Amino acid sequence: MYRGRLERDLKIWVDKGLVDVAAAQAVLREYDGRQTSFSAGRVLTIIAAVLLGSAILLFVSANWEAIPRIVRLAALVAMIWGFYLGAAYLLAQKRSILASGLLILGTLSFGGAMALVGQMYNMSGDELTMMIVWFAAACIAAALFRSSAQVALAGFLAWAFCGVYLWDNFDQWHGVMPWVPPLMAAVLIALVRYVDAPSARHFAYLMLVGWLTWLFGLHESLNAAILFAALGMAAFLVVSISASPFMPLARTAGAAPAFYAFLVAAIGFFLVHAEISNGSFDNNVWVEDKLPLIIVAAATLASSVIAIALGGRDNGAVRYLAYFVFACEILYLASETIGSIIGTAGFFLVAGLLVAFAAWLVIRLERRFSDDGGQGTRA
Questions:
Q1: pLDDT for 9-52, tens place per residue?
Q2: In whole angstroms, what is the distance from residue 293 CA to residue 131 CA?
């Protein structure tokens, strides 16, 4: 997606005489040479590695009992070391795509070997502990080899840990294990910066959003929903206000911190709406019934305006999410207030006018952002 946009922009700049053809081609070659850029060959190699690793583990497990115990253990150790040493050799030969495939095979083999050795020696333990060890092995390999593919695999293993935990403990806090997902997210973000694997940061952010939503499910209440929204907006302000000490660090992570912080806030406002709608208000008195919803709606609209004002020009993800929240809130407010007074036909009329106003406002904002971008970055 970004490469296509970059190529189109370079073509426009070449046509306007801002950049010569040789410089534009050099920019594209430099981008294509990055390990973090999309490569169909890299993706297919990783898919092949996953399939081969699954085939090897299935073959070994199917013939497990027929292999002597010492041979089993030696074969598993040799296989893991063979994959990792082969990856090191290929990296030394500048063949990073094949090296990524062998690293994936090595990490998958490590996880499978843990399960098979545990079965062979009747070692006690649970799946969650095994997933933590497997995740740690993937992180160590990612750091040693500086492999973005390994960071992505570590992200998948972190999600797998969450899935294993929720399968058995969806509605309860069990020991210290619920603290593991945010810890894994912190490790992933550190690896993303160390390895330079920006796409993998979404594993961490999405896991944090899911973890916070799960926490709300455990303590479902209006106060919890308000706290959810407040924390999301506070985090957004921390990474968006220029005077914030965290602003320089947030900028190095691109659009993700501000977007996911505002996403948490938007989910929080949605939860507040849901809690108030399910609350016990006097339905016979319109003001008492609708006033809390109107206050929350006003706060939601204000949060969207703040998000657009602080991050709208430079952060397209935040801008479009704020547009979406703003439009949904207008429709919701109209349906809960105006619609209950003037009927369905009047609701559609007023809603249409409100959406038209929102569209006009968005167009004006987009033009302003475009004009500001042409004048240079603001101080």
A1: 878 888 888 777 888 778 777 766 665 544 555 666 667 766 77
A2: 43
Q: Tell me the per-residue pLDDT of 88-147, one tens digit each, with 9 for 90 and over.
A: 888 888 787 788 888 888 888 888 788 777 666 555 557 888 899 999 999 999 999 988
State the burial class of residue 125 (Cβ atoms within 10 Å of its Cβ: 0-12, 13-18, 19+).
exposed
Query: Tell me: the pLDDT tens digits for 333-369?
Result: 777 665 555 555 555 666 667 667 766 766 676 666 5
CB-CB neighbours of 29 under 10 Å: 9
Is 325 a residue whose pLDDT tops 80?
yes
Non-local CB neighbours of 126 within 8 Å, separated by 6+ positions: none
Residues in the chain: 379
Q: How far apart are CA 223 and CA 237, in angstroms?
A: 21
Q: Residue 114 and residue 52: Cα distance in Å, rounded?
A: 18
The label of the residue with tokens 């063949």 reads: 95
Task: Say which residues have a Cβ less than 8 Å from residue 135's Cβ, sequence separation at least 6.
Answer: 154, 157, 158, 161, 184
Structure tokens at 95: 């063949």
Find, among 317, 33, 45, the residue nearest to 201 by Cα.
Answer: 317
**Six-digit token pair at 185?**
């997210």
User: Contact 321/262 with Cβ under 8 angstroms?
Assistant: yes
Separation of alpha carbons 290 and 293, rounded Å: 5
> Whose structure tokens read 């101080």?
379
Whether 314 contacts 307, CB under 8 Å: no
User: Is the Cβ–Cβ distance between 79 and 53 less than 8 Å?
Assistant: no
Spell out the domain ranges in the chain. 1-33, 219-379
Where do runs of H (alpha helix) occur along the chain? 2-15, 21-32, 40-62, 69-92, 96-120, 127-145, 148-169, 180-195, 201-218, 222-240, 247-252, 256-277, 286-311, 316-333, 339-375
How far apart are alpha carbons 171 and 214 in whole angstroms?
Answer: 9
What's the rounded Cα separation, in Å, for the pair 158 and 180?
9
Q: What Å distances lie between residue 202 and 159, 206, 316, 371, CA to CA?
A: 12, 6, 16, 31
Question: Distance between CA 352 and CA 76 in Å, rounded?
Answer: 66
